[in-house]
Amino acid sequence: MTVYDIAIVGGGPAGLSAALTARVHNKSVILFEAAGFSDKLRRAHRIDNYPGIMTISGPDFMDQLLEQTLAYEPTIAKERVQSVFIGAPFTIMTDENVYQAKSVILATGVTMSKTVPGERALLGRGVSYCASCDGHFFENKDIAVYINTLAYQQDVELLASLAKTINLYIGGALQLPEEWLANLPKSVIVHAKAIVNSVVGEQKVTAIETNEGTHDVDGVFFLRDSCPPENLVEGVVLDGTSVAVGRNMETNYKGLFAAGDVAGTPLQVAKAVGEGQMAAFGAVAFASVN
Amino acid sequence: MTVYDIAIVGGGPAGLSAALTARVHNKSVILFEAAGFSDKLRRAHRIDNYPGIMTISGPDFMDQLLEQTLAYEPTIAKERVQSVFIGAPFTIMTDENVYQAKSVILATGVTMSKTVPGERALLGRGVSYCASCDGHFFENKDIAVYINTLAYQQDVELLASLAKTINLYIGGALQLPEEWLANLPKSVIVHAKAIVNSVVGEQKVTAIETNEGTHDVDGVFFLRDSCPPENLVEGVVLDGTSVAVGRNMETNYKGLFAAGDVAGTPLQVAKAVGEGQMAAFGAVAFASVN
Question: Chain B residues with CB-CB distance to A under 8 A?
Answer without folding.
Answer: 13, 16-17, 20-21, 24, 48-54, 56, 61, 64-65, 67-69, 71, 245-247, 264-266, 268, 270-278, 281
